[in-house]
Structures are given as structure tokens and as C-alpha cells.
Fold:
Amino acid sequence: MKELPKSYESAKYEESIYQLWEKSGFFRPEGLPDAAGQGEPYAIMMPPPNVTGVLHLGHALENSLMDTMARYQRMRGKHVLLLPGTDHAAVATQAKVEKLLQAEGVKHPREQLGREKLLERIRAYSEESKAIILQQIKKMGTSCDWSRLAYTFDEQRNQAVNEIFSRMYQDGLIYRGARVVNWSVKGQSTCSDDELVYVERPAKLYYFKYSHDFPITIASTRPETKLGDTAVAVNPTDERYRHLIGKIFTVDVGAAEPLSLKIIGSSAVDPAFGTGALGVTPAHSQVDFDVYEQQKAANDPIGLVQVIGQDGNMTAAAGGYAGLTVVAAREKFVAWLTDQGLLEKTEDISQNVGTHERFGDVAEALPLTQWFVAVNKEIPGRGKTLKELMRQAVESGHNGDPAQKVRITPERFEKIYYHWIEHLRDWCISRQIWWGHRIPVWYRGEESYVGAEAPLGEGWAQDHDTLDTWFSSGLWTFSTLGWPAKTADLKNFHPTSWMQMGHEILFFWMARMILMSTYALDQIPFKDVYIHGILRDELGKKFSKSSGNGVDPIEVIKQYGCDALRWSVLSGISPGNDSRFYDEKIEGARNLVNKLWNICRFMLLSISNPDSKLRKGILPATNEASGLADAWIVHRLERVRRDVTENLERFNFSYAGERLRDFTWNELADWYLEIAKIEGGKDELLNYIFNTLLKLWHPFMPFVTEAIWQEVYGQENLLMVEQWPAMDPLIDEFGEAHYFEHLEPTMAEADFASFQEIVTAIRSARADNKVEPAKKIAVYVKEKTPLCKNNAAILKALARISDLTVAQDTQKPEGAIALTAGGVEIFIDLAGAIDPEKEKARLEKELAEVAAYIPALAAKLQNQDFVARAPEKVIAGEKAKLAAAEEKQAKLKQQLIALSA
RNA sequence: GGGCAAUUAGCUCAGUUGGUUAGAGCGUUACAUUGACAUUGUAAAGGUCACAGGUUCGAAUCCUGUAUUGCCCACCA
Structure:
């Protein structure tokens, strides 16, 4: 067997290994070794990254999560489909390309280039971006099925979009209507409520009257919109104003027409806030528009006057203010109020304003005719609204079936989801940008037609608007599987098994996938959603281009390797919580990868013949040379196998990994391999450990484990499709290894722990007394009562490891120091190297510690309540502790006396 | 204003359903260095588990309140 290099060089392996995996066909479920076998389908749809740029660290986290899960499930024998794709990200991409064009000097891209040319530019940009992204996904080691690569804006997905639009339209769930919507002047498009980003900023609150004879003072931070007021709302219980309800006042504030203001009652108005009266501007406030609708329904209508236009300037209805920008109109109006003596006071307040997620400007509320999804309308034949479908899928299961329940990890996000649903309004899905799925509706005069293609006949023109990008990504779990065709993939893989996402897209995406899937397929989109937090820098700040703290995951891979990147983003995370990413973490990850490499390298050097039979994961038969350390490591390996498996099942990626790290480094490398060096002759067992270890590590560190595996077994035998280690027949349900017949399995753990304590105590004493590491010293273990059944094994190990000599049943030699550890007395002859004063101080310190501990334990055991109520096991444990402490105390006292004698 | 988290060693975090003298990694200190690995090893120091009550035989863990920090939602017109 050729010798491996001293340290793992990721760059040498990663590319060729990925190619090998890809070539193997195992990324495809039907390419798996047992594709026709019993394995159940397991599907993960990769959230498609936006084609607005390249992947960042957050994507590295997501890919690591998904690929770890996919590899684990694949090794468990599932028919895993990890499906990759990208998202055209309508607004985001168009906004990005327009910004780039503007930087190139094209000030008004839409007017200057026109629809077709601009779309061409965006397409070119997005294709370039897409190509880079796909390369990056490969570099991250992602084991996804490239043959099923999807794009939210390709032909297949466009069919799905058109199909669902038509169905929802036929069901009356999509409608065209005039409502107040969010409008970005800069982007010249609508956006949904969820796309608003609220920013806090200082504002002035103006208190004024519309005219001198108007009886109520109102307050507003946007006085210019008051030119469009049509009512004043007061609380009907408010004694100050209730007598005015129903009255109509006509005031002239300089708009094209005098304002006709009706005083209306609304319990939503807080009498204690401000003046207790609210100027109602139906055209420029969502809330006020609701009031307008309510009044209409109650047969007490109020007017609607639009004073701000789509260009962000005042409309003709604003009379003397027409054509002014909003800000200029405000200044002019306030100046007029001041002149007239109508302005009573101003107040500086801080205010949250909704800005457009992509274009960044403050969104205006405008009344516009747009396309909407009706979330509160009953679906024909289903007896439920879309909102109810969305709620039920998470709450009790789709159609009340618990097996069709979307389970969210961590659970607390369920509450947030319900809360969001409560407040959900009809979803505005039409956008005036050009990059996106065109709305499949055709017009000719008064006629309209819904369908992908124009109907027969002349003169039909398609709706100019495009669809909200989330309308298409909402279909992702099934549009990727060929829907609306009834494909085998749909049957096999939907509902998908597991989905992960950041909490910031819970509403955008998770909610919409649930809506679309329950509506279109009568199925939930996925059984489990894992919500991860975001990665922050070492100071806890978000990574962003503007803060200049960005980390390029591909650079990290180049420098430290993909496995190190994966480990550094995965370790330390917990569901739903943010985590920090910093250099030391990557270095630590790189060190771990290298440690694993060297552990395997050492095992291979020690094994005379790596045995491919052991790949099946069966423990080798007992052999004569087996000792305590062997029993212990087998036991510990089984425990870690179980812990890793259980925790991956529960999506505790970080804990599973930590557990594996702890075993590998602190148990296997630091203890067992050191002993194995001395004892020797462990071919079979080392083979077994080597095999199992690589399999357990593979989902976390696919490259380094596969690299080692191939060095041993050749390129025809890929680790990625080895079977995940199962419980060995020789290990019982309690995790005890019945492997070494001459050893009690339950004792292995305790005995080895004693052994470790003894060794550590000796090392510590040597260090305290500055004994040169290379110097051999005599150690005597005094055995009063048999330490345990495996005492011989311990003593044997003690005698063989490091530089110790052991004698049984002995008196403390002259000048030796005495220790109590692991339940026995130990004498170390330092050949006069000790300082008696120092030794006395050490003993006294230890004595003080144990003396302080004993009374607490004793008191506990004398407490009748404790003895009566605590479980047997706990009481027995406390008694044992007390006994051990008392024995130690006695020994320490003796040792002190002996020292002063 | 409503809601949700977090608060444990200098730093980053575990602590799996209440039961060790509360753990890890990094950092720190001392020592080591040709034998798998300095991307290393050995040993050590370091914590009133934010605070105050309560429940319990027993609380980092459960309950109530307070403080600080972060996030989400609503919004003040």
C-alpha cells in the first residue's frame, strides 16, 4: 500500500473526485446501485439561487446542509434526489442589470433600450451568472442530479406557471381589480407587502386644521397627501367628536376641487393618540383604502381622490400642486398652512417607512388596477380558502391528515407563520418590470382571454405585466418534477422529504410553496422544513457588500479546501439561530480535516492488509490479544455511531459533527491509537474502525474521506454509496459491545475511565514536579481491593503505555509521592526530585477540596425527603460518590501524615 | 404597541425532555519536539450559568417578574 502524503492537500483531490462522483451516475436516483431495490425515495429541492450574481457564504451553508443530508440519506439506502436549479429572480435581476447599465452611462435603460433589447441584456447577464453559480455548486461538493437541472424561467417552468395561473383564474382565485398597492417610483412597478423593507427615520408630525371653521385638528407626517382626503375618522365613543359623525364639511386647501370631508366613526381610531382624529386618504394609504371599502360596503360611501401619480409627482387633482414632487408639494402645503394660521404645531418623531426591497425608494401607496390572488375566497369544491389551506398544512396536516403535516424545525417558527397568515391580504402578483413570466392574459378591446397562447383571431395583445417572482418559485417543489404532466417523478418524489431555508424567506417562499402545492396537487410540498440562521462575521454583523466584510466561499475552498469550508459553516450552528464565521474557525476546520487524514494514514500504516470484506461493517471475531482498550473503543465507536445517526435524523448537524470530532480526536487518536501502537496486532479491529470512521465522516467531509477510501480500495469503489454503519449484531440494544467474551461489556467504559484517570494523574504529577518527559520513572499502583474484573488488562496497559513500570501490592517507597486516582493509590518514585513543601501543599489543597465536598453529599443523603423521593438510581449514585470521596479523604490524610513523618 | 429568541469560561458556543464537583473549540500559561499529524502532543489556569423571586428532595434546565441585546410583525395617523 502506497504511503499517503504527510498532510492533506485538498486541491489535489477535489476536482477529480467530483468528476468521478458525477461520472458514476450516483447523483441520479436511478443511477444508484440498488435503484430498482427497496430504498424509499428521498427528495430535496435545492432553493434556486438568484441569477443576480455569484454565491456567497450563505449559499455555502445551505449547500453544506443539503449535501450532508443527501449523502447521509443516500448511504442509508434511500433513492436520493437532490435537485439543483436557479431562479430568474424577476425584480432583483432587472434592478441589478439596470444599475449596471446606468453605471455604463445608460441613464434610462427602459426608455433607451426598449423591452426587447433590455430583456436581451438581462438574459445575457443572467446566463453568465447562472454558469458561474452552477460551477460554484460543484466546487462545494454538492451531490445533486444535474440531469434534472431546472430554472424558474425555462420553458418547462413557464408551462407550469401558465397552467396554474389559468386554473386559479378559472377558480376565481386570481382576479384583476383596482386596489391600493405599493408602488416603487424608481422601479416603476408594484411590489407585494412582503417585499417592503422597513427603515426607521426621523419625520415631522404636523398638526393642523383643514380650515378655520373645521372643528377637528388632525395630524400627519405626509400633509401633501391630505389634498386627497375624503373623510375624517374618529372613535364613535369619543365624546369630543361623536356629535359630528355623519356631517360633511367642504374645505378648500388648494386642490383642484374643494375637499368634501365626511366625519365617520371607526373603532380603529385611538382617541388617546394625537388629536384622536384621523384624516382619511383612501388613495394613498392601505389602511385608509380599507376604510373606503368598508364605507362602501356599509352603504355610507366616501370619495377617493388620487393626488400622487405613478411618476411620484402630484396629479392634476392636486390643483395648484400638480406636477410638483411629493417633497416640494409638502413644503408648499406646509408653507400655505403656516400662512393661513392653520398649522398648530409640529413634532419630531421617528417613523418606519416601507422601502422597496430592490429599488430602495420609499414605496408610495397608489390605487391601481392589478392582478391579485384572493386568499380569503373559498376555493370551488374545496370548502376552504387558500389561507385556510396554508394554515392547515402546518397546524393539523393537509386535509386534516397528520401524515400530510409540514413540520417546521425549530417549532417556534410555526407561530410566526400563523401570525403572518392572519395578516395576509390579497397577494398582488402583477409587476410592471419586464424580466419575468408574462401574465398569460390577452386583450382585444373589452374582451379578455386567459391562456398561454393568444386565441384565434386578429388583434389580441398580451398583458404587458409580468408575474411576481415568488409566483413561479412557489411551484418549485413540483414544477421541477415535470408538473403539469403526470410524471413518474411527481409520483415518486412529491411531497418532497426535506427542505431547508433561511428564516428571511419563510413568508416569501415557504408559505407560497405550501399555497401552490396544496392548491394544485392537493399535497404538501415537503414534510420537513429546517430553518437555519444567517452567518455573521466575527463582530456579529451581517455579511454584505456595503460593509466590505464579504467572504468568497470559493476563495476559502481554494485556500483551505471544501471540507474545511463545510465544517466551518456547519459547526456551531443550531436550528433557526444565527452563527458567526471567522478565520479561526476555518483554520480549526482545516486542522480537523488534516487530523482525520493523519489518523487514517496512521491506521493504514499499522494495518498490514486493508481488508475490503470489512467494508460491510461487521465486527471482526474476538481474538486472543484483545484487551480493555479494544473493548472500550468498540463500545465508544458504537455510541458515536448511534449519536451521529440520531442527531442527523433530528437535523442537529452541528451536534452530530461535534460528537464525531470528539470521538475521532479525543478518544480514537489520543488514547486508542496510542495504545494500539504499543500493543500491536490489531489489523482486523483497525480495519473495522477505519471503515466505520470514514463512512460516518463522509456526509460532513465528502472529499477527504473519499480520497482516502479510493487510495485504499480503488476508484471503482466509491465511499459515497457505501452503506451507512448499522448496529452490529454483537452490540446489544443498550449499546454494549458483547464482543470480548472475557471482558464484561459494562465494565469496559468504567475501567477505561479509571485507566485514563490514573495515566492523567501520573502525567500531571510529572509535569508538576518538572520531570523531564523522556525520563523513565518508577510507578507503583497499590491495589487494596481488586480494582475490577479487568484489573489485569489495566495493569498490562499501564505497563505498556509510555514510560511506566508497574508493581502490584507495594508500600510507598522512601521519597516517593502518593496519588489517589481512578480508585487506587499510586506511588511515584521521582528519585528525590520532589519538593516536600510543594507536595504537602498539593495534598492539602486536594484534601480541602474533598473535605468541602463530603458534607454536602452527606447532608443530601441524610435528608429524609431526598431519600424518600429521589429515584433509587440517583440515591445509589450519591452513596457511591460519598464512599469514594471518603476513601479519598482517608488516603490523603494518611499520605499527609506519611509526608511529615 | 404585540410577539419570538438570546444571556453559561477572555472569545464562539454545547448542555437532548430537572439528578456528576457545569463541558467543548479557540485563546492564555508551562513543558515537549526526528516515528501518523507542529495543521502536533502533554499538563494547567479560567464560570455565583444576566438578576430577583417561586415550584421541587434536587434548577443552568420548569414558572413569574426585571434588565440587556437581537430579530419579526403591526404601526402613531
Remarks:
- The first strand of chain A starts at residue 41 and ends at 45.
- The CA atoms of residues 97 and 719 of chain A lie 43 Å apart.
- Residues 109-139 of chain A form the longest helix (31 residues).
- Confidence is low (pLDDT under 50) at residues 785-789 of chain A.
